[in-house]
Amino acid sequence: MSTRNFDLIVLGVGMAAVNAANKCASAGWSVAVVDELPYGGTCALRGCDPKKMLRRGAEIIDAARLMHGKGIEPNDIAINWPDLVAFTQTFTDKMPGRIENGLESNGVTTLHGKARFVGEDTVEIDGEGQFQANHFLIATGAKPRTIDVPGSEHLTDSTEFMRLDALPERILFIGGGFISFEFGHIAARAGSEVCMIDRGERPLKGFDADLVERLVARGEEVGVHPPNARARSTSHFTNASCATRWKRPAFRRKGAGPVKSKRAC
Ligand SMILES: Cc1cc2nc3c(=O)[nH]c(=O)nc-3n(C[C@H](O)[C@H](O)[C@H](O)COP(=O)(O)OP(=O)(O)OC[C@H]3O[C@@H](n4cnc5c(N)ncnc54)[C@H](O)[C@@H]3O)c2cc1C
Questions:
Q1: For residue 94, what are the contacts with CB-CB under 8 A and spacing of at least 6?
Q2: SS3 assignment, position 10
Q3: Is the pTM here over 0.90, yes or no?
Q4: Whose CA is nearest to atom 30 of ligand 1?
Q5: pLDDT tens digit sequence for 45-77
Q6: Ligand 1: which residue has its CA nearest to atom 19?
Q7: Domains of the chain
Q8: DSSP calls for 101-128
């Protein structure tokens, strides 16, 4: 079997890969990229960009409600979820072709398939054969972690969330990171009842506690709840909810008393 050789092979074609591949190709290196999925990676196809389009819908609802009584009647305004999802796809569907054309016009060889190392300087790509390189860039991104809990067969991930035909009436978000918060706030504006759980003392622990406190309070106003009595009453949420508490963020104003934990269950 003949093996093609490159200066650089980039594994994965997300944003990290595209930047590196284009820069190295522009500097005169022979470069190939490979992805097992359509080009674009998480940000362009399954993350930041389509999420921002969903978020725009939620922002419009929110802005109208905040103007209630100030000249705007927001009562008839609503998110049409299937239409909003279809709108995100008008953007994401075009991205793989655009990205591939951009790479090719810059002299990058574009390959498709799952890559795996079969030697120190050789990868095998399903359907394409073996390729050697002097350098490899592993830009294969991250995958959602599976959780070994009863009922995990009911879980979905952010990629599937953004493709749902209809939003469930009630949604439990597991993990209080920024993606949960963004999606939780979007879902609440779209009319779902949202409950969010996090194993830590407070969600968004990498973010400023005072801002998180305001966000959590705002979430409760608009229907993004920490685990509470309502969630406990739903049988397959029970174990997860009761194992979890949120403390209020450890933010103290000058002269304020000690921070009290807020029990969720
Ligand atoms: C829902 C969501 C919202 C987000 N929102 C934001 C945001 O607003 N702002 C922000 O900065 N970040 C955001 N992020 C994070 C951001 O999307 C990622 O940090 C970024 O996309 C990572 O880029 P990457 O190029 O490293 O990897 P990825 O874009 O994940 O690309 C990796 C690619 O490698 C491919 N691959 C993996 N293994 C193989 C293999 N063996 N062979 C061939 N190909 C393989 C995969 O198919 C994938 O296409 C969000 C993420 C998610 C999930």
A1: none
A2: strand
A3: no
A4: 141
A5: 999 999 999 999 999 999 999 999 999 999 889
A6: 43
A7: 1-142 (3.50.50.60), 152-245 (3.50.50.60)
A8: HHHHHTT-EEEES-EEEEETTEEEETTT
